[in-house]
């Protein structure tokens, strides 16, 4: 009888606050990254499809595309982790002490989300730098005041679209980093109050 009472006792206030904060951060991080991430992935897909149809790709484009794709894949992981925050909040509020996740597990999950965003923003910045180098190379080879007859020396819209996809991915990862840091701060603040 005492075991059933132990499983159904009311939640401590710090667990209720932690669950509410996890749910809020999970919702914000999930939706911001999902909406902006779908846009970034669509731009990346369209630009890659356009580059495939071109006759000749610029030198260095392959590595930049790899970095951009890695940034989007890290974003997918971050979105899934934000969804996991909401599931952890549900487990905390279930009232079952045995199912409640440990503090260390919750903090590790938040740190994993932060790491995913940091790795993703690193890849996205490297990809963007590569595309900026390609664009600079093309623009610097155009003579000043001369008419351009060889259009292969001009930047293509697909290369500019790849740069735009990278900047959207960087914005998504930045939002994820802000959410993770805020969440770590709030959870540590709750732990200090106990």
TrEMBL record:
Sorted UniProt keywords: Membrane, Transmembrane, Transmembrane helix
Residue spans crossing the bilayer: 21-51, 63-83, 112-136, 160-184
Q: Which domain of life is it from?
A: Bacteria
Entry's Pfam families? Answer: DUF3611 (PF12263)
The name this protein carries in UniProt is DUF3611 family protein
